[in-house]
Amino acid sequence: MHVTRRTVLAGTAAAAALTALPAAQATAATTGGTPAYRWRNAVIGGTGFVTGVLFHPTVRGLAYARTDIGGAYRWDERSARWTPLTDHLGWDDWNLLGVEALAVDPAHPNRLYLALGTYAQSWAGNGAVLRSEDRGATWTRTDLTVKLGGNEDGRGTGERLLVDPRDSDTLWLGTRHDGLLKSTDRGATWAAADGFPATPSASGQGVTLLVAAGRILYAGWGDSDGTAGSVNLYRTADGGTTWEAVPGQPTGTSAKVPVRVAYDCHTRELYVTYANAPGPNNQADGSVHKLATTSGKWTDVTPVKPAGSDTFGYGGAAVDARRPGTVVVSTNNRWSAVDTLYRTTNGGRTWTSLKDSAVLDVSETPFLTFGGDEAKFGWWIQAVAVDPYDSKHIVFGTGATLYGTRDLKHWAPQIRGLEETSVRQLISPPTGEAHLISGLGDVGVMYHERLTASPSRGMASNPVFGTVTGLAQAAAKPSYVVRTGWGDHGNGACSNDGGKSWVPFAAQPALAKDAPGPIATNTDGSVLLWTFVHWDGTKYPAQRSTDNGATWSEVSSFPKGATPLADPADPTRFYAYDTDTGTLFASTDSGLTFTGRASGLPAGDSQFQLAAAPGRSGDLWLSTKWNGLYRSTDGGASFTGLTSCWASYTLAFGRAADGAGYPAVYQVGATEAITAVYRSDDGAKSWVRVNDDQHQWGWIGATIAADPRLYGRVYVATNGRGIQYGEPV
């Protein structure tokens, strides 16, 4: 491993390169004894797309859930909680946090299988299969030679993974672009299934679902064009030696893509939901059909056909194992009339919409009102399950939660323990009720008055944001907080009570609507700096306000697209790091003008953060992905490379250790081979790792925050496992 460090001189790119840290010295720098930490989620409750739920058919109270970017979970009926099963996947395995499919073995209740892979793009790694003999407590892994797409279109279809009912050692895996795979050694090795007739497409859905109906296997094919004679469902009766198109199957746009399937073993009927697209987006037509597997007769049992402005597809499908002919299906992408579940007790002759009589209780997760007066029944419903031991226990996943009922009328989130938020911004205030304020993907800003319960105020409103792009607090006036993000009724707001309530900026630059970026406020809250970056990467000049957002003026000398940073002690100072040129810019006139200071810093680094040590003017730290840490004690006039780590992704400062003269420093970075969460009590001379191999959460490079009031507590932003916080025990 080659590591270089340099001292950066003011105003010049010429700098002296320092030697690489020897491996033995690097080890010594981190071996001060790993402290014992307890890690928990800051509770929000779901917030992401639950793409699959599966009750075990032979074990009461046992169920599993999968998500598109947040891993898999096991349901514990006694504690009424979900247990995360894939938190051990680390930085290098970030692409495996998306779960393409899961499978259980009815004959061996402790066996569980996961097919993992978030993206099937060229820049993403290959998929993997995890197999467990203890319900996900421990795993054995097989890396695949193909890619899976747990967060791509079609992620709510399935299941694409199946244990063969003829032989528990045989597994089947449907892929998007590589056809059907088969394993005969319980998932240890995989090969293409000989004889499967469909030809994979580089851009299609491939195999969307697999199901066993008795001893016959069915495979849904998502690359049909829907025309007469096209095939969307195949079957084999001889264990995969030969496959055939199922005769008489439906065609047309409403039956183009088979989304979900459920088999009623009492009536020997197969129920298939269809849509004109794989979903969860872009579905405008759909249908439900059932196949009598003994006679081969197909029947259209669609509850309501999409028509006019009421466009949607069909998604989830589940049968009641205790009541023949009782089936539940869901609509999907039905925005005008809102998605619903339809339930039949007579094999699809008549249906009842469960939404029409539903009483929703979201008091445990208030964010589900999305800043409005009440929650909606559901959206993006492609995961539906009926408890095989309780006919009235139905659950369904949405884009933000998992609803459950025990009486077919009263519904509430059944989500405890399942946290899937993609976290973008974190602040730990020095005073006040809340120890944490968070800026999130899709669900805005939240004020965490308690870490063990979902924020009682839900999403910050006035205005409501979807994804947050900026969150900042005035260091000397912590009651003043500002936020920016993607909103339908404004893109910036301020709070004068520490983040409890908000007021939109009186005005905003025109760029804010299409390119809202990070924001900063100086230490007394008298100046705002707002930067703008379009989703396509185009960068624009920053805008400045001295009247709390009533008027704005362009700061032409600010480096376009950079993230502004306020000095924590001097209200006249701001900073910005221009990664395009590797130059630190500073302002000493409250953000009116910026001038270049230190240059020769790492240019073009794909990830970096500029941070300021609390309570100290001009004490700046620069963390970089490829070059580690740099520090300046003269307001950015010069920087010195630190040799205690070789990669640093994000940095934060917290309460100092007893007797220490400098705040505790935390980072997501690498001091040796592994990327992890580290703490330093001696100004980054040495580090101790504070997470462990069972608590890694994939990619955690967005941001971290440390508590200025509680030594040792650190908050870690994940990209699908919510906010993790750790503290010494």
From TrEMBL:
<keyword id="KW-0326">Glycosidase</keyword>
<feature type="signal peptide">
    <location>
        <begin position="1"/>
        <end position="28"/>
    </location>
</feature>
<keyword id="KW-0732">Signal</keyword>
<protein>
    <submittedName>
        <fullName>WD40/YVTN/BNR-like repeat-containing protein</fullName>
    </submittedName>
</protein>
<keyword id="KW-0624">Polysaccharide degradation</keyword>
<dbReference type="InterPro" id="IPR015943">
    <property type="entry name" value="WD40/YVTN_repeat-like_dom_sf"/>
</dbReference>
<dbReference type="InterPro" id="IPR052025">
    <property type="entry name" value="Xyloglucanase_GH74"/>
</dbReference>
<dbReference type="InterPro" id="IPR006311">
    <property type="entry name" value="TAT_signal"/>
</dbReference>
<keyword id="KW-0378">Hydrolase</keyword>
<keyword id="KW-0119">Carbohydrate metabolism</keyword>
<comment type="similarity">
    <text>Belongs to the glycosyl hydrolase 74 family.</text>
</comment>
